[in-house]
DNA sequence: TTTGTCCATGTGAACGTGAACATCGATCGG
DNA sequence: CCGATCGATGTTCACGTTCACATGGACAAA
């Protein structure tokens, strides 16, 4: 229960005006930092606001300006480090600019759920939208709904008319794979993220690019769901063939799951199999063995997304072409290749 | 860039009324599901709305009803699993009830930052507030700001006039500690969370209760910051004395850091030292050794918080006394006690 | 028939704010 | 010294919705 000291209704701009002995418009001007107000008047108005504990009514303001000062974020996180960090950064950055953030979280990736969440956000009068749920389907839905606000996504789908944050996931994945190749690995397996995630697709592409360039045998990637549990499961499956010396996982969670499976089977990492992940979650350096992975600046991603979006919203587009390039962090989970001991 | 097919301004309730050949009030009634509307009329209005792609203006509605259908969440997460999961659940639950969620994230725990974030949220006309940043300071600030909306926190501070979600962290910590005691450990160290976190305090209390009840020596708890890095650091420090056989960490991240330090020093877990964490993050079962920890239903926490808050908002309080009791999950990181080999 | 009640709908006002325009005095250039 | 300009402030209106109340017709009870 909370206190309810409310007597009548909240004080309005007119109450302040009356107390300060000015017109309501003058109060409005003070509120909005208008210039031609005498210092003395401004002072008087401020005191009146203070005395009445006046708080501007956002609804009234939004009604008359048709600007809600709110942006929407469509996300799909179940507590994962990456998206959560980016969202936190988005909130900070938006607040910094006086904007509010409304988040809608995707519980499932069914088209119905996506549409429902999106409708929810759009019913709210948001000025712009950040799409942190880079699933292909989301963009299809987005395209079909004729969104009438600017929106920014994490990665361009190629089609669609919006700004995309340029994070070079392909380069990151490529660097990770190249690292393994440089270590002498010739049989590398990729455990990818869900097929319909744009990020998963980009990482897979980077992997394939590197493998093809090096003229290595192409193992068919395994499609996972980003979870450590899946990594564990995939690791067990992979060991049945054992026709590889390294695994590049689409994210750190799956990488840890893989290492768990290898450990269970008595297979040494990196002695027998090298493992590389993607994301550089805080635990990456504390697991055993410390995980070689691709570091991403999630906070930076969030901040850039906000800058890009608010640029569009204000009609002064910001240059967002400067790519964010993730960097490889080499740790103990990757090492020189050994002979393949599998059946192949 | 986004398309801008907007000609004039968005269609209003009156435009719909004109097209349907009724009064604006009839449209409003259809919108709000009022009863006494002829089916045929309702149908005609619906078609007109469809034809004009009419979307109700939230600001206008909020202005006249003085209900924003928005709740605020004050959080303090940097991507950690627990809070992020709860927030995701809050969003789902709120959306389910037609509510929007505005989140403000605490970048630092300085009083200034707290006040700033809180002011931001309260300037927005939220109907209620969920405090997911259970730091003592936050409540002090809250108390000092004379909040005029209902709010719900994760844990009662004892003082303050609000609803608190009853999660029995004390019981969880107690169970974890008792588990170690049952295994024969007599020298148990607690690596706690930041002193000003209510959760950290509760977990420490649970630990101390169990230790005192068992009449064991009380090691002074080490105050950490929830991070794996700190756990690693603390582990190194602890090994200098080695006057314990088990560690109970305030959360899983620190527990993993501790195990990392022990591993580096060649100390076997659980052979020489047992480790228990708190939270049951998804990686807990995949690290080496799999971590014994206390499982928390973060999603449930979020859902309950929303139910509790909306109950207050609607003036029909929900019974929230039913405690959420975390459960111990026993894995390989804890085992029977061995003799203390340290100096003590 | 008359009166009252209920249903379906309409009319007018109000919510709190900012934009556009109006006003009034002071200052300035010629 | 007079019109022009500018600074400081006031007046009126519109934003899109819901609320309180009004209207008119159908139907039942008297």
From TrEMBL, chains A, B:
InterPro entries tied to this protein: HTH_LacI, LacI/GalR-like_sensor, Lambda_DNA-bd_dom_sf, Peripla_BP_I
Keyword Transcription: yes
Keyword Ion transport applies: no
PROSITE patterns noted in UniProt: HTH_LACI_1, HTH_LACI_2
Keywords associated with the record: DNA-binding, Transcription, Transcription regulation
One Pfam short name: LacI
Molecular function GO labels: DNA-binding transcription factor activity; transcription cis-regulatory region binding
Protein name as it appears in the record: LacI family DNA-binding transcriptional regulator
